[in-house]
Amino acid sequence: MNRIDARFAALKESARPGLITFVTAGDPDPALTVEVLHALVRHGADLLELGMPFSDPMADGPVIQKANERALLKHVGLTHVIDSVRQFRIADSRTPVVLMGYLNPIERYGFERFAQAAADAGADGMLLVDCPIEESGEYEETLARLQLRQIFLLAPTTPPERRLRIAAKASGFLYYVSFKGITGAGHLEHASAVGALKELRDLSAVPIAVGFGIKDAASAAILGAHAEAIVIGSALVEHLQGATDAAEIEARVASFLPPIRDALRAL
Prior knowledge:
With 267 residues, the protein is α/β, with parallel strands linked by helices. It has helices at residues 3-14, 33-42, 62-73, 78-91, 103-109, 111-121, 137-145, 160-169, 190-201, 217-224, 234-240, 246-265, and strands spanning 18-24, 47-51, 97-101, 125-128, 149-154, 174-177, 208-211, 229-232. It has an 8-stranded parallel barrel with strand order 1-2-3-4-5-6-7-8, surrounded by 9 helices. The chain is globular and about 45 Å long. Mean pLDDT is 92; it is low at 181-185.
């Protein structure tokens, strides 16, 4: 069984929402990518999203844009992403890893070549921000053959008919963007997001994760009560910015993640 499917099955049995964390590969330092991933798991992450650095991350706000820039300045590319997953798997064979990013660098690498390398390294899924369902057909067969779950985004502005199509095609989990805008924005409206999540529950056969704008334990608990998982990214990336060694990574993750973890586990 794919690790994403297995983890959500375990979360369902435990009757609690999962915690998905997003970080950018190579930030705050390429030598620390694997240590960041392990620290996140130690302190409560149920699934990991690893961002693939790109020069024009159009869906991301300033915090993650700058993380991409810092990683690219240190020459972090897809080879580092794959190597990081492979190294992470040496000590962790169970935590799901989703690679999140944009098509341009993957197409330059060669999509099938990259997907094969990602699967061989131990990745479990891919979320391609600029690959909507209308353009996913050429990639779908490759990902399915390699048992890589294809994660789709769904937004408040998505028309009802298209929501049905996305929900029908989703695998692994469906990522609901909680508001109109970019990652890390500060205008999360809990009531409208909760209402949308309730409607999506009737459409989706796969778990629903909700992200964008979740910054703390309080907002995580409000939305976590209506989804199978919450995703926290920009606030975490900002908290880790500037860390210089493994000990500092451990301390920063330990000060940030457990309150969010505990709020979700208390639901």
